[in-house]
Write a structure and sequence with these properties.
single chain, 20 helices, globular, alpha/beta, Protein-Tyrosine Phosphatase, Chain A, 9-stranded mixed sheet, 3 domains
């Protein structure tokens, strides 16, 4: 009987390790915040949690009443969970990234199960107590995931603290390095890449890669990529809570800053746009304290309405901007315009799509002029700009169709601009695939409704992803004269692409707007 119990517990533990893949994936996508993970559980896991609770209760009964059959049930559960884990990862939009932290979480789970298994077979300990604990932990895997996260929190904090201090040491040893901070509710990644390209005409430049805009992303960039010959470090700064930008500033100490926008982003944590403004301007506070210069986007109304413009260098389309865009011409092939500052009128052209990218270029060019980059070099760099990956990126797609890949755009104004770009593709059938916008708090319904309206007025076919999430979008679409037969509502992106594949041809353009990870699709 002891061996049957031991075999059953080992099988249960191994099955739980496979089941934990999905839970650790969702913890990872929710930045390891328990509150956000609970939010995902609430929306997506209730039915499965109940099923696993019933399963746990059944296996507990087997353990007490018929231990010999317990191993058979555990083996069946192992096979089911292996198949399910591989299926879930295969279907996932953003798969589990097996980072060092994930490996440590798995190690904690393995040690936890090993202790339970060892204790359950010791002769002087009540078998049923540990058997019950083992069954519950291996069946109720969300609880195990959170327990492992809690157990490893002191270790993760210590590791993070060491890495941060090491990055600070590296930066202290480089007083010659010019650090430029870039933040904003939207546009910061695009501005970072545009600025990096322009400044590289004169300087050796390092920019935080991809969306490495958290404190640990900045730390990793400094420790792994900063070279002795690097002259300029462009540091993208993201935030979801008040104080997040200040935390990055305490690591990098930027001497120049660009604030691209303030808007309704991450309102589930910020609550108000005023809190967003306060957080983004933590960068301005740091730069001005150090006697530096801050460039701000004058076309962001939520930003401009809250500042004393005399303290900043303002760029954009507005008449009173210090660095102004004039004579703007936009279309499906890009934009051309005059950049005007201090008597200089610099004609620029770019293949980047959208009016907002023109404003992004204006901010980056204004800063480049301050740092002594020659106007002709700026013109050349702007003309050679390529789209940031997944941000209004034009590429060939199915059956000779054209895709506007805007999968990483998740802000209200940017999404509306993307629809306007799609509308400029005259003579083509216009299709949009989108799950809508997230983390906008009380404004989420309104912003998705407006996106639905814009799509209804501009598109020929609309494919909405997420049966529940897309409801505000669908209501916005239906407020227009859009034909119901051309509106499709699906459960996932695979289904959406399947519908699109049936209509795609050389006369079709599709906009992929905001490709949400799995934790938001329901």
């Amino acid at each position: 009987m002891k061996y049957s119990v031991l075999a059953a517990l080992v099988l249960l533990a191994v099955s739980a390790l496979f089941a934990l893949a999905r839970q650790f994936q969702m913890l990872q996508q929710n930045s390891y915040f328990p509150s956000r993970y609970f939010g995902w559980l609430k929306e997506n896991f209730c039915a499965q949690a109940i099923a696993e609770a019933v399963l746990a209760a059944g296996i507990c009964v087997l353990a007490w009443a018929a231990p010999l059959y317990l191993a058979v049930g555990a083996a069946f559960l192992l096979g089911f969970r292996i198949a399910r884990a591989f299926s879930q990862q295969k279907k996932s939009i953003k798969k589990l990234a097996v980072t060092a932290r994930i490996k440590r979480l798995y190690a904690a789970a393995a040690v936890l199960y090993a202790v339970i298994i060892a204790a359950a077979v010791l002769p002087w300990i009540g078998k049923n107590v540990f058997l019950t604990i083992g069954v519950l932990l291996t069946c109720l895997v969300p609880g195990t995931a959170l327990l492992c996260r809690t157990l490893m929190a002191p270790v993760e904090n210590a590791i993070a603290h060491w890495y941060v201090n090491d990055a600070k040491r590296i930066l202290r040893e480089r007083p010659d390095l010019l650090v430029i901070g870039v933040t904003g509710s939207y546009g910061k990644t695009s501005v970072k890449f545009i600025l990096s390209r322009i400044l590289s005409e004169k300087y050796n430049v390092l920019a935080t890669p991809g969306s490495f805009n958290t404190p640990m992303g900045v730390v990793r960039t400094v420790r792994e990529h900063l070279l002795p010959q690097t002259q300029v470090f462009i540091c993208e700064m993201g935030a979801k809570n008040v104080g997040d930008i200040q935390e990055i500033c305490e690591i990098a100490h930027p001497k120049i800053g660009i604030i691209t926008s303030v808007g309704a982003q991450h309102l589930e944590t910020f609550r108000t746009v005023d809190a967003v403004f306060k957080t983004k301007f933590e960068l301005a506070d740091e730069v001005l304290k150090n006697g530096g210069e801050v460039f701000v986007n004058g076309d962001s109304e939520e930003l401009f309405s809250r500042i004393d413009a005399s303290r900043y260098t303002v760029y954009g389309l507005r008449e009173d901007a210090d660095c102004r865009v004039r004579n703007l011409q936009t279309g499906k092939d890009g934009s051309s315009f005059l950049l005007c500052r201090d008597g200089l009128e610099l004609p620029l052209s770019t293949k980047l799509l959208g009016k907002h990218n023109t404003v992004n270029i204006a901010g980056a060019a204004a800063l480049a002029l301050k740092l002594g980059v020659k106007p002709d070099d700026i013109r050349y760099a702007v003309a050679s700009l390529k789209p940031t990956e997944h941000r209004l990126e034009l590429k060939p797609y199915l059956n000779g169709s054209v895709m506007i890949d805007d999968a990483y755009n998740a802000n209200p104004e940017g999404c509306l601009e993307a629809v306007r770009v799609l509308a400029s593709f005259e003579g083509l059938r216009k299709v949009i695939i989108t799950p809508g916008l997230i983390e906008l708090g009380e404004r989420e319904y309104e912003c998705n409704y407006r996106l639905g309206q814009a799509a209804g007025e501009a598109c020929d076919v609309i494919i909405l992803v997420g049966k529940n999430r897309s409801k505000p979008l669908a209501e916005g679409v239906r407020s227009t004269a859009f034909p119901e037969e051309n509106l499709h509502i699906v459960s996932g992106f695979r289904e959406a692409v399947g519908i699109y594949a049936g209509m795609a041809d050389a006369a079709t353009a599709v906009l992929l707007e905001n490709d949400l990870p799995d934790n938001y699709l329901y």
